[in-house]
Write a structure and sequence with these properties.
Distance between the termini: 5 Å
Strand content: 15-25%
Structural class: alpha/beta
Length: 237
């Protein structure tokens, strides 16, 4: 089986629980560290799937790899290679599919409830689940691209996830681990302080409260998403 390519945009925003899920299912993966200068591949068919993680940059920034990432995502769609995106990764997907990424009405940092949309496709991905507590860290949000279906929403950011065929893009973070949460709280102290007046920004003490229970519940939701996404991976060589 070809590996799943995992694209990392900044060192502290690694694959977390997504990598754990692949390991548990004996699915090979290859980390492509764009933050360390690795080049984006040109042929999506070299992999069984593509996973794009988060990052502090904007997809609207004039960074040379953004256009190449967008083309790789479109190449994956043409060749039926499943793509999954987390936060920045979901924004890359939305933009590649013809959507827009713009400043969010409210910055979200920390834990917050997400609702499952009321449509048939959402039921296919999430079963009878109605809502859950997810982790968030974003100041921009995507529109639902043409042909895609909104699957997750909340009051502060209406577009929390979409699906387009085998492809799944998220604004929220379901890949979190205790290490990731702690590292982000430490690295993001200035951003948290600057947004302290925002109703969507939590302080580290709240983000770290009851962390193991919150993560266990979040991983149950991540399992629903990752299990269905992995079903679409090519099992050939």
């Amino acid at each position: 089986m070809k590996p799943v390519a995992i694209f990392r945009h900044v060192r502290i925003e690694g694959p977390g629980y997504f990598a754990t899920t692949l390991e548990q299912r004996s699915i090979p993966s290859r980390l492509v560290a764009l933050d360390a200068g690795e080049e984006l591949p040109r042929d999506a068919r070299a992999f069984s799937g593509l996973a794009f993680m988060g990052g502090p940059m904007s997809v609207n920034d004039p960074l040379p790899w953004i256009a190449r990432a967008s083309e790789l995502i479109r190449d994956a769609v043409r060749k039926d290679v499943p793509v999954i995106g987390h936060c920045l990764g979901g924004q890359l997907m939305a933009r590649a599919f013809g959507g827009k990424v713009e400043p969010a009405a409210v910055k979200e940092i920390g834990w917050g409830e997400v609702q499952v949309a009321h449509n048939a496709l959402a039921r296919e991905w999430f079963g009878e689940l109605q809502s859950f507590e997810s982790f968030h860290w974003h100041g921009e949000s995507f529109s639902i691209p043409p042909g895609a279906t909104r699957l997750l929403t909340n009051s502060r950011c209406p577009n929390q996830a979409f699906a387009l065929g085998r492809h799944f893009g998220m604004q929220c973070h379901v890949e979190m681990t205790a290490e990731l949460v702690r590292n982000w709280c430490e690295a993001g102290r200035d951003e948290i302080a600057a947004g302290a007046a925002s109703p969507g920004v939590q302080q580290p003490v709240e983000m770290l409260r009851d962390l193991e229970r919150r993560l266990a519940a979040l991983h149950e939701v991540a399992d629903l998403i990752y299990e269905r996404w992995c079903e679409g991976l090519s099992r050939g060589n």
